Amino acid sequence: MIRYVAAATLALVALPAAAQDNPPFQPDCARIDAFLDRMVADGRTVGASALVWKDGAERCFESAGDADREAARPISRDTLFQIFSMTKPVTGVALMQLWEQGKFGLDDPLEWHLPEYAALKVAVGENADGSPILRDPARKVTVRDVLRHTAGFTYGAGGDPQNAADRVWERLQPLSSDKTLAEFSQAMAQVPLLYDPGTHWHYSAGVDVQARLVEVLSGQPFADYVAEHIFRPLGMTDSGWKRSMADRPRLARIYQGEAGALEPWNDDALLEANFMGKPMTMGGSGIVTTVDDYLKFARMLLGEGALDGTRILKPSTIRLMATDQLDPRIAPENRLWLPGKGSGGFGFDVFVRTAAPQSPDENRGSVGEFFWDGFPSMLFWVDPAQDMAVVFATQKVPFDNAMHREFRAAVYGADYTGPAGD
Questions:
Q1: Which of 66, 138, 264, 286 is deepest in the core (most CB within 10 A)?
Q2: Contact at 8 Å (CB) between 66 and 46?
Q3: Its pTM surpasses 0.90
Q4: What is 5-86+221-412's CATH number, 3.30.390.50, 3.40.710.10, 3.50.4.10, 3.40.50.300?
Q5: DSSP 3-state assignment of 168?
Q6: Interhelix angle for 401-412 vs 29-41, to 10°?
Q7: Whole-angstrom Cα distance, residue 246 to residue 85?
């Protein structure tokens, strides 16, 4: 296993003296198991599992509760999970493979590769009839912007548009499951930008734009490209967007509501997209996988682009993706909810920790770690300083950041602030 020696060294330099006194860290599987049991017993989720890989070996696999409460089907090692936005780092890896091949430059204007974005405008208000007032952006959207959520794109407003740009989104429905990625991109290019490129971190459908870039630059349908160049080489045989009906009995059910009152979530549209052959293959969501399969992807990232002798990306490319790419001039108030993830910034499709936890309420973690999560409270992270990758799988909405904070405390210990000193 190739370690991030530089990242670990920087972590030791950056940490306060108290962190240097931490004892050598090993995950406590019994504590993780007790955490999962408590989450289920308290009705905060119906079922969950956790998988921890450290120092070149599996250290813990724990599970609790049910994949489908109504069918009395427990969570098992081969349970399938809808991972939602944990799809995004997979898409980023696919696009960066093409960058390594010289297919594009990070600071290329997006329109060089997707001409439909040449006429992008910024919404600066609205007319009396609700139509947007538009102006030219201060500069062009670049591919780097698309990779780090600084393009100014929106994700829509969930049926409750509060501005003229989101009203255009609502009308065009770029991510409708009935659209192809090509049709998505044509519609997305008509939605005004919320901000000038580079001025705000705003979570958006930019990762779906990345998926369309993969199609155009590779000449392959996006899902086919990922299967050929990521899933099959890594042995991720249980991962993909489109599944056969034979897989349905293994699929974990999504539950929604407050603790003690969780009910099945009506996710028919998502199941239709996964199992009924709808055309949309999103770059930002949609993968169905197991904890073991996703751990292979996380281990590849931990291995600086390689897993068990199979190289997916160069080490330097992984380090680039896992480096904070945000301009320091983007103030915390212009980073949406990103500061709630911890002390850090954003790389390419992953959060990047740049400082030790600053308060007892902050998520535990090591400087240099990178991660992302998914709407039904899914989570993974890669901790190079501890030579560790972790996958936490559950299917509970709305997203539960408190559960993630408690899970990290179960993995690291409540007082962890970084790796032990030499």
A1: 286
A2: yes
A3: yes
A4: 3.40.710.10
A5: helix
A6: 150
A7: 24
